[in-house]
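Handover notes (outgoing to incoming on-call)

Open items:
1. H-NS histone family protein: sequence verified, structure written out, both below. Nothing else pending on this one.
2. Nothing else urgent.
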Amino acid sequence: MANYLELKAQAEAFAAQAEEARLAELQTVLDEVRMRVSAYGLTVEQVFGPEASCDVKEETAVAEPDSLAPAATVKTALNPAAAWPFPTGSRP
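H-NS histone family protein structure tokens:
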């Protein structure tokens, strides 16, 4: 019977082999998925569900340049509590 260290070494070797096989097959799988998505005209929502489309929209949204964004501590009509000294930003 193999001891713990021998079994652990075998497990690590199997994990390495599995990763090599995954990487070898990855491009083929990606090519097939892309082909089928294109052939069937699938959308992000159809493939990953409605929650995924929200993630994509957030990632592709254009960020406002820092020069145009108001400073976080500036008291404005949109953020009147910003200048308040308490860490919660709310008044008592």
